[in-house]
Design a protein that fits this description.
Helix content is about 25%, strand content about 30%. It is of the alpha+beta class and about 90 residues long.
């Protein structure tokens, strides 16, 4: 993909997650925790610049498992609020 092309968005309810870590084992541990919280597809890993590992996975946020379900319910901001001050 050309760096100037916008990246395709995942379908509604899904999130693309990228983990960059120094070792493949560290990236896999993070992915394992995410898969315990959300349904998701297969992960894909690639070499990261500088010698680390870059892991990509897609999660289905419409089907959260515990503990994500509890966290999502309590962490939703009241409607009508915007991004944090440091966010674009």
């Amino acid at each position: 993909m050309d760096r100037n092309e916008p990246e395709a968005l995942p379908p509604p309810g899904y999130a693309e997650i990228r983990v960059v870590a120094a070792t493949p084992d560290t990236a896999r541990r993070v992915a394992e925790v995410l898969r315990r919280c959300f349904a998701g597809g297969e992960q894909r890993s690639y070499p990261a610049p500088g010698g680390g590992t870059r892991l990509h996975l897609t999660v289905d946020t419409a089907r959260p498992a515990e503990p994500a379900r509890s966290w999502l319910t309590t962490s939703r901001p009241p409607s009508g609020t915007g991004p944090h001050a440091e966010e674009p």
